[in-house]
Amino acid sequence: MITTKSTLSEVLEKYPKLKSVFENNGFKGLDNNLILKQIGGLPLDDLLRNKQINVGLFIDMLNDHLKEDVVDVTLMDNVHKKDAINIIGLLPCPVRIPLLDRFTTLSSLDKINHNLKAASEGLDWLKEEVKDAKTEDDLADIYISAGFDLFFEQDLMKKFKDDKVFEDYYQDVPYNSDFENDYLKLRDPSGDYSMLGVVPAVFLVNTKVLGDRPMPKTWGDLLDPMFENSVSLPVSDFDLFNAILIHLHKEYGMGSIKKLGKSMIKSMHPAEMVKSDRRSRVRPAVSIMPYFFTRMALPGSVMEAVWPEDGAIISPIFMLTKRSKKAELKEIADMFTSIETGEILSHKGLFPSINHDVDNKLTGKLFKWVGWDYIDNNDLGKIIKETMKVFEEGRE
Question: Which of 32, 66, 100 is the last residue of a domain?
Fold first, then answer.
């Protein structure tokens, strides 16, 4: 196990695969023996503090990467069994390992085929499988992922939703009061899709780069010309970026998408965003990112997290379960909707849970949800393609 007193050289020698984790978080020149000689003997505690990186979170991240190999090997024996339950999808990276740990406790594990990849691997492989499916029998029994395009494009999951292939087993179970209130209704009124939680998009403001411009407090503020060429967007996080495009298109129209393109200074990974005041030559005044990554910003730094007053745009984390196999799938579905899973999502990943008994610790925070009426009455796949085209035009 890696500790704060482990040195950089010790870690890289014992776990060479972790070099990419260090490189993705601003450590350059690790292939240079001279640089390693200079910094390799430093304990991680000192090294990370010198780089103004949250020590505890970074150490946890390193150990999670090591644990991922152990969990995946443990589960590997249960893949490709005949006449088994098939589960596929993507799990958010910060919570994938603890969720897979819970997965191994299922009594039906030896009857399950699974392919639950990290969300960072993207949806393309999953889209191809769904696109090729002609009937219910061609589909897996359970799907888990975030976002809109896979689940609501007509040539993907929407046709199966329309055919009532899936069922929300928990239509009578109350949602968390953060999401089931007077202004927000997340539950699928058609009773087809279950929701596990959400990925909220918030602002991280570099107060130094912001200068004398007012602090942005709403999504509309970011469309002001004063923020042109000043905003970093999570373009590579397709689920969240598509959610942002859909919500702004609904609320402000196509013109807002072009303005968003003009505001973009650079597409950055969230880990780069929180350190943009220190290492990047390109310094955005505002970075839009998943709420999870805002906690990487060190207290007292020039980076200030802002929860939009009009609500954090959310990308929903869905679970699709076949209607025809409810008895077989109930134990698995119960595990994914349990308070234990909800607390992993909410407390470890900062992905607020819909479980009624989970304290998301977000009292008074608002969420921006596109709404089921909008989803049912619009072709989201077409909207995503059109808004992306206009967004690119805005960048030219």
Answer: 66
CA distances from 3 to 13, 32, 56, 98, 191 (A): 15, 24, 9, 19, 47
Let me know whether 181 and 116 are in one domain: yes
Print the domain residue range for 45: 8-66
Digit-coded pLDDT (tens) for 198-227: 999 999 999 999 999 999 999 999 999 999
pLDDT in tens, 77-131: 445 566 789 999 998 878 888 888 888 788 878 888 888 888 877 888 899 989 9
Domain contains 286:
yes
Residues 268-293 pLDDT 10s: 445 555 555 444 456 789 999 999 88
Residue 353 within any structural domain of the chain: yes
In total, how many domains does the chain have? 3
- Say if residue 177 is in the same domain as residue 80: yes
Same domain as 162, residue 82: yes
Residue type (1 letter), 327? A
Cβ-Cβ contacts under 8 Å for 307 (sequence gap 6 or more): 202, 203, 291, 365
Phi, psi of 364 (to 5 degrees): 90, -5
pLDDT, position 180:
84
Closest CA to 152 of 192, 102, 97: 192
C-alpha span between 112 and 57 (Å, rounded)? 33
Q: Report whether 273 contacts 264 (CB < 8 A).
A: no
What are the Cα distances from residue 21, in Å, to 6, 27, 76, 117, 315? 16, 9, 24, 18, 26
Q: Is residue 134 part of a domain?
A: yes
251 with 342, same domain: the answer is no
